[in-house]
What we know:
The chain has helices at residues 18-21, 26-34, 42-52, 67-80, 100-113, 130-137, 148-156, 173-178, 182-191, 207-216, 244-255, 270-282, 296-307, 318-321, 341-348, 369-379, 472-475, and strands spanning 57-60, 91-96, 121-124, 141-146, 167-170, 197-202, 221-224, 235-241, 263-266, 287-290, 313-316, 331-334, 358-364, 385-388. The protein has two domains: 8-224, 3-Layer(aba) Sandwich (Rossmann fold), CATH 3.40.50; 235-388, 3-Layer(aba) Sandwich (Rossmann fold). The strands form two sheets. The protein has a seven-stranded parallel β-sheet with strand order 3-4-2-5-6-1-7, sandwiched between helices. Helix 15 (341-348) packs across helix 16 (369-379). By secondary structure, it is α/β, with parallel strands linked by helices. Residues 36-37, 39-41, 44, 63-69, 325 line the site of adenosine monophosphate.
Amino acid sequence: MTNEKNTVSTGNAADLSGFAALGISGALLKATVAAGFTEPKPIQVQAIPPQLEGRDIFGIAQTGSGKTAAFALPILSKIIGLGTKRRPKTARALILAPTRELAVQIEDTIKLLAKGAHISTALVLGGVSRFSQVKKIAPGVDVLIATPGRLTDLVREGDLILADTKWLVLDEGDRMLDMGFINDVKRIAKATAPDRQTALFSATMPDEIAELAKGLLKNPVRIEVAPQSTAAAEIVQSVVLARTRQKRQVLSKMLADETMRSVIVFSRTKHGADRVTKDLARDGFEAAVIHGNKSQNARQKALNDFRDGSVRILVATDIAARGIDVPGISHVVNFDLPDEAESYVHRIGRTGRNGRDGIAITLCDPSENAKLRQVERIIRMKLPVVADHLGSPDPQRDPREKTERHFEPANDREHHGPRRDGRRPGNGGGKQRFGGKPHGERGPKPQGERPAAAKPNSSSKPDGFKRFKGNNKRRFGGKRPANRAA
Ligand code: AMP
């Protein structure tokens, strides 16, 4: 891999415009235009021609930049030329995404762009029935979109063969890294065709991603569409100072303003997201909630209800919402600050999309000041404080409401700090190869989550820790009880 930036020519196409000038033609061009994509976005201008020439791509870009079409159109264009003959259980192209929602979104875009072009697609995701996925890929598919965990299981068990996979896309590489999928990704890449073409996209570029790119990409064209960790300019950001106990009331007052048409409320933890949703319901606001403990169906339903406007509030954790592209979100409210400052940039990036204005409001308890400073450092601006409730008394809770103890076990946090040791969540860090023993059916356990094993059983049980007295060895590296699936 070279570090120098490669220049990209859009070809000698003076008489063509839009996607045609980039080399897209026939049914694909027709479907692209019908999808409303008439003018290519900058990332598409930069990425499509070199991929059509067979080059690898290293793209620094966020969801929302138009990267899906940027990697999908060249692949589809090449697959269309190959005809329909495929070997059973194989996939011609593989797109790896860190979360199920992003994978579903990518498949939707690909179906839209390939409409009328006779391209088969399949999704391989954890948390949903394995049987129907195996059935779908049995005759072989053109484009497989997958999350790394379930894909690894299918390959290991011989239900999927990657030897014919000539196009590989790794989307949101930094997120895969944070979620501990990096070794799975490397193994998967190794199992694909050695002469494959690869594209790697990442919103940020930590050293580990640069390393991964070095190992997987051959002389890639490097593309960067937005400066790293810089929030979009059209988002108006502010801070409201409020103690944790005041936040519920502050949020409800805010939401009474109907100009807040479509709002994502971010919570740092799954437990917190549930609590915010419940409190909103008590205050008369219907909200959908999306986090990693929800079933795939519940997550998709929440997202659909929010997307089609049947609910105007979506409460989300970082992991569940990253990569989600819902047009027209007017407001992002950070109920609390994320553990990692970079997540702030991703959170507020859910609004202010496609040139529309967006508003991002962060509720900040004094205990979160250090996190706020961290955020201001990476966005390189001081956030204005537009309201200060610290001088007001804490609101009284309605005594009829069941008091819930505010207790957040460490593994409740979805964005728990980067897991950059390459270990997959819940695999105990043991080495795994495709040929090795299956590590058991993960069942409907949502992917990308930390295992709930050894978790104090209930947030409402303050003495939950007592159960682990004298048993800490088991929690921290001791032998796993035989009856507990990995
Ligand atoms: P992505 O970054 O791939 O998630 O794309 C972000 C949004 O931009 C999606 O809603 C796409 O449908 C939309 N989009 C991508 N490319 C174009 C284009 N050339 N013209 C109009 N909309 C686009």
